[in-house]
Write a structure and sequence with these properties.
alpha+beta, 5 strands, about 45% strand, 5-stranded mixed β-sheet
C-alpha cells in the first residue's frame, strides 16, 4: 500500500496516557499521544522502531472503543 496516502482512523482505544489506533497502512497498533480533542482531525506519522512510515488522520468523529480487541477486530473485519 502507498505509504504517502493519508488514510483515516475511525476508532481509538485509550491506554494509559495515550490512545491506541490500528494503523490503516500496516494494521499494527500505533500509539497516539494527546487528549482526544487534540488528536481529532490531526495527522500522524507511523514512525519509530515498528513504524511503517505511513501517514494517517484521526477522523473528527472518531469513536473511542472499550477494548483493544474491538479496535483490532472491527478494523480487520
Ligand atoms: Zn503503520
Amino acid at each position: 500500500m502507498d505509504t504517502k496516502e493519508i488514510l483515516k482512523v475511525s476508532k481509538v482505544f485509550k491506554e494509559g496516557s495515550e490512545y491506541i489506533a490500528d494503523c490503516p497502512h500496516c494494521q499494527k497498533l500505533v500509539g497516539i499521544e494527546g487528549e482526544l480533542n487534540e488528536i481529532k482531525g490531526e495527522q500522524f506519522h507511523h514512525n519509530g522502531l515498528f513504524g511503517c512510515d505511513g501517514w494517517f488522520e484521526v477522523e473528527r468523529n472518531v469513536r473511542r472503543v472499550d477494548s483493544i480487541n474491538e479496535l483490532v477486530r472491527e478494523t480487520k473485519a
